[in-house]
Write a structure and sequence with these properties.
homodimer; alpha+beta; seven-stranded mixed sheet; 30% helix; 23% strand; globular
Chain lengths: 361, 361
């Protein structure tokens, strides 16, 4: 097992040695909702507190999961907690979401999802029938994604110390194709493909929470994306980057890529699919669809010479039928996302700084 | 990658087909604290609801983790949520506990822990300084256990919808030695070794919670056990079974082994190490140390001809210095644990049925 001895040792950075350095985020006294929102505050917490603390190349890739090689096979490993409120929503519930989310994070590493773990934190008094419905949804989602739920845990907290049910899923997958995807791999000239309309998941949850009723009920887009990813990888093994725009929406994912790759990203508003009812709901709720969470969409950054081929492949798949080229990677301004508006103007699309959408996933 | 195509497909059991069967636990209306207590109610929930739902041989082994083979290498995969209250306690905090617990679950599968994921559910208002202290403890625990924390997630829930911090860790390890350990492998004649005194962790938490003060402050025994396991496996690759008696304590672990192996287990009270101060606290709190959680102890079931050798090896390790042979595997009564008391009587040691020790881990 020579491979394992070659793993990097947990490094001792001088700053952290002896564990006596002051809290690097001591300017922030307590945790705010926005620390979990996928935007600027969360990024600060991760970069200033967690990354220096756990300091290793896997974590520092800041990908949707860690990819490591063992015995000449590459595996991906990922985890996510789900705290969505309400637990049941149009198009799914916390159970299906917790499976789809984790298989999608593996897929975004280019990995075929194989095994899933699930750890439940239940609040005393949570209805058994609801737990059963959640478990059935998890089961169905596992079957659909062709993964096995192989290990789990159940904890119960006192009434008033939780919120019904929280689920943490982790996943292990295998990178079967000779691909290397990552947020740091975008290159000037690459094209950006989005697999369908944005904002459906976030708006479905928020409409329910706010008691909004629309003529057409907006459904969450929660879905397992590996089959779509597999076709993209077959068509274009050179794909640079795959991301699912969940918390923080399309804007946050593109900002992460722009920053990690040190490139500019230019997108055109007119090319980004947004359903009419989602647009309407966003207007009422005062939201920009670019920042609203999705749970069944992906962004693929591909070399320009392959863009037509990839687009065609994606459109043939049910989860990619509304795919569109929404922009391209440019040199300047590096680290920034620029939106060309419908009227031809340009504006910077920044990271989210507040938290308008708590507990969306 | 032929290995993966040979993985069992999620099976369709007739009962669950179409997802229309009634809730198998409909006699229990809501979740109770005891559903998370490691005792009888939790076992019922797992066996009646989760196992039939997710139905696969990995999950059904009911081990501390799932062991699967890929490319002729065996890996272990495990997950646990930590909801301990209070978050900081003598001997550790939720951070060190969440790392030790998961590396220990891997170790109990005979696996060397390699990679850890951590998913945090924070309550709005949780002090940043506390988060920092927890992160430092996790870091230190990872270094001590020689594992890398490679991926993570942070969610925040509104004030009053959580309890400060919950951590879910998952782990991936590799089974390097040609061993096969499992709760179903105990054989009549085998000896049972316990690696040290029981009850320390649970009593440390409860004393703090109840405001009890003792002359000697009782410390949690939270510790990473793989180095001890590695020596056991080297000395005795035929070891039948390894378990860490966490929630539900020694009594629950022995009951699980007795049931899964369909053997009887006889232990002698006089041989089970319990510290004087733990004994005293248990008397005040009305607890039986046999049911109190440990976080740095293990039970090894070994063939009788190897027991002296294994005991000697364990005693040489700091985490096993108080190891003792506490009993043996017998034929009758199958599925039962019998305690020979100090006065020479015998009583059945059953599974826990209530929940005297909520949120101990």
């Amino acid at each position: 097992m020579d491979d394992f001895s070659q793993l990097p040792e947990p490094e001792e950075s001088a700053r952290w040695k002896g564990l006596v350095c002051p809290n690097p985020v001591r300017d922030m006294e307590t945790i705010l909702m926005a620390h979990g929102g996928g935007g600027r505050l969360m990024t600060t917490l991760i970069k200033k507190l967690f990354l220096p603390c756990f300091h290793n190349p896997y974590l520092e890739s800041l990908h949707d999961g860690a990819v490591f090689e063992m015995n000449r096979v590459r595996y991906a490993f990922t985890t996510d907690s789900y705290v969505v409120s309400p637990v049941f929503f149009p198009g799914g519930n916390i159970g299906s979401l917790s499976i789809h989310g984790t298989v999608n994070d593996l897929a975004m590493c280019g990995a075929k999802p194989l095994f899933i773990s699930a750890a439940l934190i239940l609040e005393e008094g949570f209805p058994m029938e609801s737990l059963y419905q959640v478990a059935l949804s998890m089961r169905q989602a596992c079957q659909q994604a062709n993964v096995l739920l192989v290990t789990g845990d159940t904890k119960v907290v006192n009434k008033g110390k939780g919120d019904g049910i929280f689920i943490t899923t982790s996943g292990v997958g295998v990178v079967e194709k000779p691909v290397h995807v990552g947020p740091e791999r975008a290159k000037v000239g690459d094209k950006i493909i989005l697999s369908g309309s944005i904002g459906d998941h976030g708006v479905a949850i928020l409409s329910l929470r706010e008691g909004l009723e629309f003529e057409t009920r907006i459904q969450s887009d929660t879905a397992p994306l590996y089959p779509l990813v597999e076709r993209i990888l077959e068509t274009c093994p050179e794909v640079r980057c795959l991301r699912d725009p969940t918390r923080g929406g399309l804007a946050s994912v593109l900002n992460e890529i722009a920053e990690k790759s040190q490139v500019g990203i230019k997108i055109t508003e007119a090319s980004i699919p947004v359903k009419e009812e989602v647009k309407g709901a966003c207007e009422i709720l005062g939201l920009d669809p670019l920042y609203v969470a999705n749970e069944g969409k992906l962004v693929a950054i591909v070399p320009s010479e392959k863009v037509e081929l990839v687009l065609e492949t994606m459109k043939k798949h049910p989860y990619g039928k509304d795919s569109a080229v929404i922009g391209e990677v440019i040199a300047d301004p590096a680290g920034r996302v620029i939106l060309e508006t419908r009227v031809g103007g340009h504006r910077v699309v920044d990271m989210l700084s507040g938290e308008p959408l708590p507990r969306i996933c």
